[in-house]
Design goal:
CATH class: Alpha Beta
CATH architecture: Alpha-Beta Complex
Shape: globular
GO molecular function, one term: formylglycine-generating oxidase activity
Number of helices: 3
Number of strands: 13
Structural class: alpha+beta
Pfam families: FGE-sulfatase
Oligomer: single chain
Helix content: 10-25%
Bound molecules: calcium ion
Protein name: Sulfatase-modifying factor enzyme-like domain-containing protein
Distance between the termini: 47 Å
CATH topology: paralog of FGE (formylglycine-generating enzyme)
Length: 286
């Protein structure tokens, strides 16, 4: 059975994205007007706003159990449980990257730059690499990014560490799926009532009130300040595995341990991004 309740719609148009500095962005500057350079955080959930108004939350070094126990309801065989050590802290997006933070191909050029819905239909390799290159160059040029740090897609280990925020349960808020509508936009009753061709597998009673994409931050944050880690858009990791489930994903598949691999050129209407800022790997230091 296909894990994704909704079959993907793959756009064949070549989506070319670049970052824009939209009008509402708040620069991170001190009282003298100088750009504040990024530095490590101290406490989990501490926030950083970059020069383009993108908010990030600090994830401190630590360790956790990734994957799911054998008896976890809804688990898949590739969720092998193992201890992961996070040697170095990192910053991770408080929100999914929004459409307003990108300009798009001709299929998207009608969107207002203020659009705070998350950006979908972009590949984890070509499109992400282009955006990250632009962001790294812009922030470095402004003096906001130290040379040993970089913007990147999270590893799966980093993503799950940040999503769990210290919780070993199915969801960061516990095990009870009935609490999910407070925290996530998933395939719920409102989606079912759209009578979309794929919505027949949606949850019949739980209702998050969004039949498709929701503006980022419409639901409660996890204990480290991250919104929409479950649902809304699934999120690319650097190995092209999507994590967290989406607006078209069943409630069970919004679990912290759930994972779904895709091809490196796939673009899906239910997968987006959440960037990290991390120390460069040793071989990339110059
Ligand atoms: Ca929904």
């Amino acid at each position: 059975m296909d894990r994704w309740i909704q079959t993907s719609v793959i756009l064949t148009a070549s989506a070319i994205f670049c970052l824009v500095n939209h009008a509402s962005a708040q620069s991170q500057r001190d009282q003298s007007g100088e750009v504040t350079q990024l530095s490590p955080g101290e406490q989990a959930g501490e926030e950083w706003i970059n020069s383009h108004g993108m908010a990030f939350c600090w994830c401190p070094p630590g360790s956790y159990l990734a994957g799911s126990p054998a008896k976890e309801p809804g688990r898949y065989a590739d969720e092998t449980q193992r201890r992961v050590v996070i040697d170095e802290g990192f910053w991770i997006g408080k929100f999914e990257v929004t459409k307003g933070q990108w300009t798009g191909s001709p299929i998207r050029n009608c969107l207002a730059v203020e659009d705070d819905h998350p950006q979908d239909n972009a590949s984890c390799t070509k499109d992400a690499a282009r955006a990250l290159k632009a962001l790294n160059e812009l922030e470095a040029k402004l003096g906001a990014l130290p040379p040993e740090w970089e913007y990147a897609l999270p590893t799966e280990e980093q993503w799950e560490y940040a999503a769990r925020a210290g919780a070993a349960t199915r969801f960061y808020f516990g095990d009870d799926v009935n609490d999910l509508p407070k925290h996530a936009n998933f395939s719920d009753r409102s989606y079912y009532e759209t009578l979309d061709v794929y919505s027949n597998a949606a949850h019949r009673t739980l209702n998050d009130r969004f039949a498709s994409l929701a503006p980022v931050g419409s639901f409660a944050a996890n204990p480290w300040g991250l919104h929409d880690v479950y649902g809304n858009l699934a999120e690319w990791c650097d190995n092209c595995v999507a994590r967290g489930g989406s607006w078209a994903t069943s409630a069970e598949n919004c679990r912290s341990a759930y994972r779904h691999p895709f091809g490196d050129r796939d673009t899906e209407q239910f997968i987006g991004f959440r960037f990290v800022i991390r120390r460069k790997q040793p071989e990339r230091l110059r």
